[in-house]
Amino acid sequence: MGKADNILQTLGDFTSKENWDSFFTIRGHGDAFEWYAEWPQLKDPLISHLPSLSKTTSPQILVPGCGNSSLSEQLYDAGFRCITNIDFSKVAISDMLRRNVRERPDMRWRVMDMTSMQFTNDTFEAVVDKGGLDALMEPEVGSKLGSQYLSEVKRVLKPGGKFICLTLAESHVLGLLFPKFRFGWKMSIHVIPQKPPSKPNFQTFMVVVEKDESTALHQIESSLNFSLLDSHGNQTRELVKTLENENIIRQKCSSGADLLLSLEDLQLGAKGDLQKLHQGRRIQFTLGGQGTSVFSYRAVLLDAREQSGSFSYECGVFIVPKTRAHEWLFSSEEGQWMVVESSKAARLIMILLDETQSGANMDAIQKDLSPLVKQLAPGENDSGSQIPFMTASDGIKERNCVFQGTSSLTGSIVVEDVIYEHVSNDASRIFPTGDLIFRRLIFQRTESLVQSEALLTRERLHETVSGQMDRKRSHSSSKSKNKGKKRLNKESSDQMKVYHCYLASSYHLGIISGFMLISQYLESVASARTTVNTVVIGLGAGLLPMFLRACMCFLHIEVVELDSTILKLARDYFDFTEDADLTVHIADGIQFVREFRNSGAKDSSAIVLDNGNSSHVKHRGDTKIDILIIDVDATDSSSGMTCPAADFVEEPFLLAVKDALSEQGIFIVNLVTRSPTINDMVVSRMKGVFNHLFSLQLEEEVNEVIFALPSEFCIKEDLFNESALQLEKLLNLKHPEIRQSIVDATKKIRCLK
Length: 753
What we know:
The protein has 24 helices and 30 strands. The protein is 31% helix and 25% strand. Helix 8 (171-180) runs parallel beside helix 9. The chain folds into 4 domains: 32-256, Vaccinia Virus protein VP39 (Rossmann fold, 3-Layer(aba) Sandwich), CATH 3.40.50.150; 262-391, no CATH class; 396-458, no CATH class; 506-599 and 620-751, Rossmann fold (3-Layer(aba) Sandwich), CATH 3.40.50. Strands 20, 21, 22, 25, 26, 27, 28, 29 and 30 form a 9-stranded mixed β-sheet that branches. GO terms for molecular function: S-adenosylmethionine-dependent methyltransferase activity.
């Protein structure tokens, strides 16, 4: 017995055919090995749940993983003659066959793997498992074998048939068993009496699952008397907790709650017939895993809301990288429907990648997904037609991380140099030689949102730049690009500098184009050799303030940034510098603006934190803000608005802005949202506060720049061309192409109020 006991020391050995062959050889012939409870305790509860015996027929019963237990012999002697026993141990089957061939001639014995049975569908009225599932469920191995086994049980059971599982009911076993038999099965759980007066370390339970004719969802019934199970404290508590949680899930599913289902749940009809398109159907579910694929995936199935017939694909797959899965476009229901519309697919299966697929390339993921998604295609899918895969790509060819750190206010921050796969003609014509390198500032809280993006050049190139520029390359919005995978050679960017005569972000040029709305005032200030008070809330890498300082010398620019770490990064990695007319305050932007509002006609000072220390910023009594730009991101973009933070478009702040602006002033907001509802809400609030409102929607970008004027009088639209020419003359730009891009943007500004 000593050697046999050693073989059973680890549950991992329970899945090894060789170990079981050795075990049964050591035990010898006729020495039955019983898992858990023995026949006197099992007899009554087990037989009460088996199909009834009749004079003419006996129910077909399968005993998988039979080993050399006497269970099937006891059932045979109790009148159940049609019993098939299977085990993958040839030693065990040979022993049992010799032991029963004369006394129980109708009993059948087969060497067979219980995870891959060689029986046709709907063969048995009952499957009786005594410890087989538990043996397959080694925690370190995972649930793959257990899942395969239970799928086989479901397949070979006849409608109305029962799976009777004798188990220790550990949480990892029930965690597979309960959801596997969730839709279209009736389930109950019972306790097996203990042999008096013994008190074994573990209690044996009997789970009974009946194959229902419908796909209804039933609560799990229980006949447990928990007061009698106190001696098995932890085991009982785990069972009770797992049972309660499962019944809560089943109740929520029955009430129509939007829960994550499995592919098996869907195939059982949990959300209707998958073979047919159902207009506007949306299902969240888990796909793969448990032996069916390398990875498990979080997925959403969406049937187009308008089944017009003008679809490019009957079924398509859209893969969202981990770094973009949190974005509103992919994480919200409204955003997902927008993706469906643009995909031109009658059914779209959206796959949201996470950390579990880390390290796998896209080819491997698509190969893993292909057999899974074919099961979700509408119709019989016998044509063999390929299901197209689409991805939310980031377009990056190479990358090099030059800084990675953490701020207590902003969280994880990355500065990286990248080379894009494609650069449009504008930038490549200005810098025609070699791959262009862009330096990007990224906050990990919104990984797909690039806060700032600058072009890097060697200083000698600054003197030889030439070419044409129609507009910024279409693929790169500083507030809309994500990260790639390949690495950029660090040496290629070590000796390079940020080129502040070029703005890589199209929305920055869009912000400047809005100055056209007050160009007459700007021209008068420039002629009088005075200054325009400009406040930019949100420093980022400092690219917009540096560009403005260079091209409009009459601007006095104050930048308000909440996080001192961002200022240090702007200086160290983006060549940001301050002077008498470009200063940075480490302060709360909303409080800063309110101080302007409260200053009135008297001198006042706003308390800010410069470099982390409390100080005062003096405002002249007659000082108002002429240009106020809001360019900050939201700490949580899951609400649907990526820029700005919600507080900057709330009515109290908007009123403070109106009071702080000069009569000729302009308020500019970089708005990033894919939700029409949120966009309409922001515009409605601003209309309620400001006298005039204008908008610039950037082509191929999510960004919309909103311009608000506090004055009652405003430039007429028929004078926009003249005002654009005024602005053009005020811009001192090294590249006339950039000036033209700004002027072109003025032609796209439209009046909202």
